[in-house]
Amino acid sequence: MKEVRILEIKQSVFADNDRQAEELRRELKEKGVFLLNLMSSPGSGKTTTLMRTIEALKNDLRIGVMEADIDSDVDAKTIAESGAKVIQLHTGGMCHLDAAMTRQGLEGLETGDVELAILENVGNLVCPAEFDTGASKNAMILSVPEGDDKPLKYPLMFSVCDVVLVNKIDVLPYFDFDLDKCREYIHMRNPKARVIPICAKTGEGMEEWISWLKEQVGSWQKP
Questions:
Q1: In what order do the strands lie in the sheet with 163-167?
Q2: What share of the chain is helix, strand, coil (3-state, %, to 5)?
Q3: Which of 188, 142, 151, 138 is nearest to 169 (CA)?
């Protein structure tokens, strides 16, 4: 029987993406553009959190948003109401963005007048975590209705994030969600992750998140 050749392509694909991501990160640093990669599952409250974030920072930072979805422009239209610069990215059926796709998005956004660029990644707890987008920092949102065990089930997502926003804490009394256990599970995957409980709808906890983000942007822009 003829021998079958097996090519391990996954590692080389990721390696190439990692090189592109590092190059993009270096370029953004030189330009003073802070790129936040915001990830979560669908329905966690990314867009609502973004609207609150933009409202709190619009007088301090020039903000641009890239809305990534498989299809539709619903979220982009919502973000446009905030007055922030926004473009819609369609992934053509792909459940994530990589560094090359992010670069295309940033070119479309035209970041010459942007200090804080936010990528609202495709709603998914698996694929987006596998690809380095070239972001300055990674953030994710975990909503209370999703359950406190998600860090155990989706370890990579939590391990790559610098900050985890636990959203919809206003409904904690109605769900079997232990915030202390959730924090423990997150730190099992990533001891350095900042965990911030919030309610994007009411604004509870947003001050801590905004303070963290402003600090990160300021540090990134220092020579």
A1: 85-90, 63-69, 116-120, 34-40, 137-143, 163-167, 194-197
A2: 45, 20, 35
A3: 142
Looking up tokens 């990830």 gives: 39
Structure tokens at 46: 């990314």
How far lies 74's CA from each of 52, 78, 91, 119, 218, in Å?
Answer: 17, 6, 15, 15, 31
Write out pLDDT tens, residues 76-126.
Answer: 888 889 989 999 888 777 788 899 999 999 999 999 999 999 999 999 999
* Token pair listed for 139: 């953030």
Count of residues making up the chain:
223
Q: What is the C-alpha end-to-end distance of the chain, expressed in Å?
A: 62
Rounded Cα distance, 47 and 38, in Å = 10
Structure tokens at 125: 């707890």
Structure tokens at 104: 């295309």
